[in-house]
Amino acid sequence: IVWTKEDGWQQPELLPYGPIQMDPASSVLHYGQEVFEGLKAYRREDGSIVTFRPDENAKRLNDSARRLALPEIPVELFVAAVRELVAADAEWVPRGADQTLYLRPFMIADESFLGVRSAERARFMVIASPAGPYFSGGVKPVSIWLSQQYARAGRGGTGAAKCGGNYAASLLPQNEAAAQGCQQVLFTDSATPDTIDELGGMNLFLVRADGTLLTPQLNGNILEGITRKSLIELARDRGMAVEERELTVSEWRAGVADGSITEAFACGTAAVITPIGQLKATDFTIDFGAAAPGPTTLALREELTGIQFGTRADTHGWLDLVVKG
Ligand code: PMP
């Protein structure tokens, strides 16, 4: 769908997957004026296909778009585009645990000029790809690397937006994590480096021995994960306490050492809920060993995937039915 300042959003089109034409002076190529989303379509036992909270993705895309000086797209238009693509690609929605069709809605500035200003023409597209588990090995615990040299976001920056530039900044630290044998990188706050923000592509939760969930508050630097938001609601439904507040690496280390923090997990659309088995840094390692995955991590994972795949009741009305079974 194309947007221009004069005419707004034009008629959507469903096209076969293939290359797109772009002018070499298109502003997105030079100034990174781009935002995106990630969500999944799930096939349930009865053959029906659903997506999970697509309206939340639409709202977040618009929050990101505002920060990147891009136009907002009506939520209904976003949701209709996702529905139309999923329905057209229904045969590509796989069956089976952890098997999904990953959907990537994105918006790019697409006006040709070389001066630095926001574009007056944009395009919104959605592409899809079948996906298996993000980390091989299912719910096997992952190791994460504490990035002490690089920050993902700074105060007043674009950390809370889902824009390509944030990921460009996280690629080198992610490579550094891989070189350390870790699957993900943990970012802390650039101004107060003990303060935990999030992982390269996931939010972080810690579980206290008394069952309380701890997660960094939305501080303007981290992405408001839809999985994070949903888990907070599911945990509260179960009577669990959830604290959204500043969390530090020191508190995590001390809590593991004295037994008051018993589990840690990463969450996101791609990672679902993945237990953290180890946090590595240049000068220390926290090891959850045989304690990962812990019972709270597994119970929340079961609850969330149960709703998505239709084995648990969708009491919050989070599913959008796209294809009937
Ligand atoms: N943080 C970052 C940096 C991410 O890329 C993602 C994935 N979108 C998340 C958190 C988790 O967000 P969600 O639960 O909406 O997938």
UniProtKB/TrEMBL annotation:
Domain of life, per lineage: Bacteria
Keyword Transferase: yes
Reaction(s) catalysed (UniProt annotation): L-isoleucine + 2-oxoglutarate = (S)-3-methyl-2-oxopentanoate + L-glutamate; L-leucine + 2-oxoglutarate = 4-methyl-2-oxopentanoate + L-glutamate; L-valine + 2-oxoglutarate = 3-methyl-2-oxobutanoate + L-glutamate
GO MF annotation, one: branched-chain-amino-acid transaminase activity
E.C. number(s) listed in UniProt: 2.6.1.42
Residues recorded as bearing N6-(pyridoxal phosphate)lysine in the entry: 162
Gene Ontology BP terms: isoleucine biosynthetic process; L-leucine biosynthetic process; L-valine biosynthetic process
Cofactor: pyridoxal 5'-phosphate
This protein's record includes keyword Ribonucleoprotein: no
Family as reported in the entry's similarity comment: Belongs to the class-IV pyridoxal-phosphate-dependent aminotransferase family.
Name of the protein described by the UniProt record: Branched-chain-amino-acid aminotransferase
